[in-house]
Structure prediction request, 55 residues.
Amino acid sequence: MQREAPFHYLRPMILVTGGTGMIGSRLLYDLVKGGHKVRALKRENSSIHLFESYT
Prediction:
């Protein structure tokens, strides 16, 4: 009998560049709320305070 892979193995991690911008931050929000694993790149001087409430 073959076992199914856990759900988190079926979805790849998504990399979002520009995650602190207007469109990128909304995209990150929608992906996280949809259950996707995400990583975001940010510039050194960009704030990440919005993302702390996404998880």
The beta strands are 14-16, 38-40. The radius of gyration is 14 Å.
